[in-house]
Structures are given as C-alpha cells and as structure tokens.
Amino acid sequence: MLPEDSSGTILPFTVIPCGGLIRPDTAYTQELLQLDPLADHCRMTFLIATCAFPFDVARSLELALFRTYAVPRISALLRSTGELTERTRKRYDDTDLLLSEIIEHGYDSPRGKAAIANINGQHARYPIRNEDYLYVLSTFVYEPIRWIDRYGYRPLRGRERLAWFYFWRAVGERMHIQDIPMDYGEFERFNIAYESARFRFAQSNRDVARRTSDLLLGFYLPRAFFALGRPAIHALLDAPLLSALGIPSQPTWRTWTLTQALRLRGRVAAALPLHQRPVLRTRLRRPSYPTGYAVDELGPR
Length: 301
Known about the structure:
Blueprint: H1 27-34, H2 41-52, H3 54-69, H4 72-81, H5 88-105, H6 110-123, H7 130-151, H8 158-174, H9 184-198, H10 203-218, H11 226-234, H12 239-245, H13 252-271
C-alpha cells in the first residue's frame, strides 16, 4: 500500500517496496542508472514495471501466457482445471494480482510473502515438472525484455536487464524451483532450447489460447468485433508459437503494420512526460473482485 496523509489522500511520488522518491519525466531513468542491479533489483524492478514501462510490461506478460500454452503438458493441465476455460477473467485477475503484489511490494514484504505462499499452495495440488516451472519463470524474465527492446521508447540497459533477472530469480527460489541458472545468458539459452524441444501442437493449446485471446480482446472491443481483432494478437506471435497453437501464419503486411504502430507508440511515449506516479495494477478495478480482495483469497477456492 502507498502511505496516506491524515485525510486519506495518497501521497504523490512516494513508494514503499524499496524506498525512495518517484520523480517525473527522466528521473526514473536517472535513478535506475544510479542503482546496483544485484543489491537494488527490487527497487529497479518496481521502477521498470510501474514507472518507466508500465504499458510494455503489462502487454508483454499477457503475451507471455501464449508461450506457456504452446507446451501440450502445460496447456492440458490448465484446461483440466477449468480455470482458463470456464473462469478465464478470474484466472487472469488472480495471476495479474499475485504477480503485481510481488512487484509492487517486494518478494520479502508481508504482502509479497503472502502472494508467493498462495502461488506455492496452488501449485502443490498438481504434479508439475521442475523444467516447466523453470520455463514459465524464464518467460517472466525474457518476454518483457524482448518486448521493450522491440516496442519501448528505449531498450533496457544491461544493468536493468540484470536487475529484472535477479528479481525473478529470487522469486523462483522462494517458489522452490530447482536449478535456476545463476547467469543471465545461461537462463536465456535454456528458454530458447526448451521452446525448441517442447513447442508442439495440441488441441488443448488451441483451446486455452482462444479463451485468453477473447479475454484480452474484450478489454478493448465488443464481442461482435472479436473476429476482426484476433488477427492483431496473432500478428504479434512468432511462427513456431503460431504453429504450436494451431494458428495459420500471418501475412507479412499485417505483422509489419502492427509492429510499426507499436514502435510509433513507443516514439510518442518517448516525447511525453512519464507517469508522475507509479501505475499500480493492484489498484485497478477488477470485475472478479468488485469489493476488493485479500491476497490469500486469490485463486480457485
């Protein structure tokens, strides 16, 4: 939670997860350059996700979901629970809120610890292989970095990439994931090799991907226009991923057009003042939780 004054008003520019002040405009970048990737990775991750690149991080993690669906044993498990096919919006809100609690408050804060305990409790119900845990964790690391490199108003610097890696590695350790690489490049090589070996088409891949794409389109379009909007999502997915999801290859012009539009958005963002307050996804209105939520109540009952 952000601190409040005696009237209940949120105090501007102040954040709790790793201390310090948020300043407008280029101050986010200036502060990031002054921090140490290992010692200050909690603070740096907070700044990247909520101040410097909130749009990019949110969109990249949404698309990262599709990569996990391209692995049949993961998609089959997700479909079997019914959470993604029958309660898609609630599953999305639960996942988004749990990850946001960890990012916004820090993994060793009371709320961060509660979020990780919740995740561990849910996962303990299912026989999930360690390499699948490792892969999903790797998507949290590399998909935001790749998205920002392609579409952000500037690419992440080396120290920012390392901080992001160290943060999610620490989260993975607290999730009891084994054999997490200590090296940034080694973990990325694992990510690429896993996809090459495990991406295969299955009907369960298609089923959960279709439900998720409809959910994401519902944020922007009425249902009657989903068929028109779906190709835009597909145009952001690479050829091996499309094949594993059973989606036809997209025309080059469509991919090019969408890529240029997102890059233009990045250039426009570079010319505008950045958010003067952090964009906290835990503060967004959620139809799944109209009256609010407790961290330990997130997820299937």
